[in-house]
Amino acid sequence: MQRYVVLSILLLGLDGAAGAAVINVGPSDSYTKIEAAKAGDTVVIAPGTYKFRVMLSQQGSAAQPIVIKAQDPGNRPVWDLAGKSVSDWPGSYTAGDKGRGCWQVKGSHYQISGVVFRNCQDSSSAGIRAVNSGPLTVRDCLFENNTNGITGSAQGFVVEFSEFRQNGKLSSSGSPTHNIYIYGGVFTLRYSYLHDPLEGQNIHIRARSATIEYNWLSRAASYPADLMSCNYQCGGSGTGPITQKMLLRGNIIVQHSGGANLSQFVAMSNDEPGGSSDSTGAVSDMELTMIHNTVVGVQLAVGKTQRLVNMRNDGVGTKVTLHNNIVYQVKELAVAHDPQTSNWSVSGGNNWVSTGTPTTNLTGSVVGASPGFANAAAKDYRTTATSPCVGQAVAVTGLPDKEYYLDETVTMQYRPRATAGDIGAYEQGNSAAPVGPYGQPPPPPDGGVPDLASTDAAAGDGMTALDAAKTGDGAPLDGVSGADAAGSDGRTSGDDGCSCALASRPTGGGALLPGALLLLALWRRPQREE
């Protein structure tokens, strides 16, 4: 009787797993095949150029995400909407905001990887726009020459291993545009390379909570980053005003000598002091924490203002915490725009700063003329064995366990950081193997676009043992969810990489059926009497 129960449970499990489809898309197809994907489906997009809009509104789940990926990550499909405004290209979505994104995401649990978004231009368009969506992961994508790289709000918006370059408009009649512009939700950016936006910031953040870690951010057209209020986007939690928080951890942030605003690196500003119509969504406080970043400034003339953090504290409390950062050639650290008010604070310790930089309210500062970079002229901001930053970090909550690998030539990877004893984004002498978007590093770059075909084909689910390893708290080493880590390249167990179109959903158990038959055979074997 017990064996019948076990077999019944097994068959019920197979029936529940049935229904996932692999949907192959080529340049001759339209948006309908991509938009039709449902929970558990995998959309595989062939190389080529695509010229239509996409609206993703289906609902996946943590156990059954909707995966959209490149057939060949070394020859990525390109959405290039040059020649017309985004709103003028074909697409199923016809509302007034149809031009706001080349791809727009209203659904949940989408995982998008290996796609290039180029020339998505409109009044406020983006390569990808999240429209108050559920969890959304974007991996190994390139965003270039769009009005904004990505925009929007999602409850769990993760962008990793991606490049953002030259997004923005050369002339803007309205608000500036940016490489990344997030409003509302919870946002994470990691292992990515952001550089040379045509205007605005590399990251313009209005999220309720944002984690920016292990990235390289350089040459912002204005200043590198800001945390702005989200009264009109955050929405209320029903418990009163909110505290916006942003964590910057393990980033390399390089100021642009030709930037339009060299007075600040990170701005904190409540530019919506009137609050929102829903008072429970109003911002009451803003908190910025910077841990183990390497910040490289432009040496400005005497009398010029230059601040690591500019707290405008416009009607809200502002709090800055700085631990274990290298802050090179920056005149001031964190300064309130209105120092006469009492709603701001600065704390932290063990930061390296250039001689002459005030360290008021900070402890254990290391001061000198040089942090001991390996080769600052070549933008190699790793420290040497004799650097004054080696062994000088203080143990605090949230220490990094990874570091960005490597520079502006070898990009969009990380490697584990076994210790965090050194000040700055790098641990001196770290020789751990780098990890790329598919679990192992790509070959040497070919013109800035990673060649990842061999990594996806060779690794099955694309993960090395290093990437699949668990940390002490049971989380995957690269921080993705368990469901995501189980198949980081988005392939289902039944996807053998064939190019045949699979338009219909199987009614059986698919790739699980052979295992069921094996178990059935074992069940039928004579049992030894005890």
What does this protein look like?
By secondary structure, this protein is mainly beta. Helix content is about 10%, strand content about 30%. The chain is built from seven helices and 37 strands. The strands form four sheets. The chain has a 21-stranded parallel beta sheet that branches. A twelve-stranded parallel beta sheet has the order 3-6-9-12-14-17-20-23-26-29-32-33, with no helix packed on it. A hairpin with a 4-residue loop joins strand 34 and strand 35. Helix 1 packs antiparallel against helix 7 (about 515-525). Residues about 1-15, about 275-280 and about 445-530 have low confidence and may be disordered.
For the structure shown, list the relevant keywords:
530 residues, mainly beta, 21-stranded parallel sheet, twelve-stranded parallel sheet, 37 strands, 10% helix, globular, disordered C terminus
Largest sheet: 21 strands, parallel
Number of strands: 37
Average pLDDT across residues?
81
Count of helix runs: 7
